[in-house]
Amino acid sequence: ERVTLLQAIADAGGLAEGAKESAVTVTRKDRTGKEQKIKVNLKDILKGKRKDVVLQEGDVVYVPETFW
Fold this sequence. Notes:
Elements: E1 3-4, H1 5-11, E2 24-29, E3 35-40, H2 42-46, E4 54-55, E5 60-62
Antiparallel strand pairs: 1-4, 2-3, 2-5
């Protein structure tokens, strides 16, 4: 089953208060084991400006906290 970034965030209970939606990072390992970092602006996905990211097994999603 394909799970997208938005689905995974929703399944986790949504974003925490103060989450920085414009600076999400998905870390993924390629076939050789090298780490790739995919920067995602959730606001663009929600506005339809960018496609939702389909997650792969082993992906790690990091949503930083805004400090202002």
